[in-house]
Specification:
Number of helices: 1
Number of strands: 8
Number of domains: 1
Structural class: mainly beta
Largest sheet: 5 strands, antiparallel
Length: 129
């Protein structure tokens, strides 16, 4: 089951982790957060990409959005089109994005910002899921 609607979650598609969150300039708190499994996010984004329609909303408990490919190039870019993109999460806490920069039918380029996620030992961990 994929969390398509607010409040829908299962232990199969999310994991609870600890994250370091800066609350003040000199203070950092460690809080539990729920992040989706990367494969579930990829599947959700692929379905949105197949539809090819702009979408904004909540997925897996996080704000997310999808923007379809556009024929006009981005400003000040050598690209010949604006690629489709999907992003979910909050930069600086946990953020995952996909960019179809090689074309609609190519595999998307992924970016994961999970530098605030900690392991059970309290150390930062690269990659979640």
């Amino acid at each position: 089951m994929t969390s398509w609607k607010h409040g829908e979650r299962s232990s199969k598609n999310v994991v609870t982790v600890k994250a370091k969150i800066r609350t003040h300039e000199s203070q950092v708190s460690v809080v539990p957060i729920v992040v989706p499994a990367p494969d579930e996010v990829r599947e959700f984004a692929a379905k949105l990409h197949a539809r090819g329609q702009a979408w904004k909303g909540e997925a897996f408990g996080w704000f997310a959005e999808y923007n379809p490919e556009r024929p006009e190039p981005p400003l000040d870019s050598k690209m010949t089109f604006t690629p489709a993109d999907f992003c979910i999460g909050e930069s600086g806490i946990w953020f995952f994005s996909l960019l179809w920069e090689h074309g609609r039918n190519a595999e998307p380029v992924e970016f994961l910002d999970d530098r605030s996620i900690l392991t059970g030992s309290g150390k930062e961990v690269a990659g979640v899921g």
